[in-house]
Design brief:
single chain, 135 residues, alpha+beta, Nucleoside Triphosphate Pyrophosphohydrolase, 3 helices, 24% helix, 43% strand, NUDIX_hydrolase-like_dom_sf
Length: 135
């Protein structure tokens, strides 16, 4: 299972560019075996951005059908820290919905778009790592 954070103190939202493949994604990663979801979310965001966040709401559940990974995405509020490049990230950018659509693959863009628009039940979606799949 993995967790991702869409940081949005108001708008726009933040994205990180991965150092290993250059892709733009929301900060996050795989939970450690004995780690609870909130602790993993806070750890991953801090490791990748230098920011301390507070989860506000779960905005989506996304399954990569090819790899069998389920990602939980949370809208978060930045509470402390400053953006810092790490071994995992090489750039940061505050982005609009249109920029997200241009910068990220469909499978990753939808996570951010859902978090930007979601004021109700979390979205539940499937993808193949690049494209959304039908329900």
């Amino acid at each position: 299972m993995s967790v991702n954070s869409i940081c949005s103190n108001i708008c726009p939202v933040g994205g990180t560019q991965r150092r290993d493949n250059g892709h733009w994604e929301a900060p996050g990663g795989v939970l450690e075996l004995a780690e609870d979801i909130t602790t993993g979310l806070l750890r991953e965001v801090k490791e990748e951005t230098g920011l301390q966040v507070e989860p506000v709401v779960l905005t989506g559940v996304y399954k990569n059908m090819t790899r069998g990974i389920v990602a939980l995405v949370f809208r978060c509020k930045v509470v402390a820290g400053r953006l810092t490049e790490t071994d995992e990230t090489r750039a940061f950018r505050w982005v609009t919905a249109d920029e997200v659509r241009e910068m990220a693959s469909e499978a990753f863009a939808i996570r951010v778009l859902d978090a930007m628009q979601n004021d109700h039940a979390p979205a539940v979606r499937q993808h193949d790592g690049e494209h959304l799949l039908g329900a």
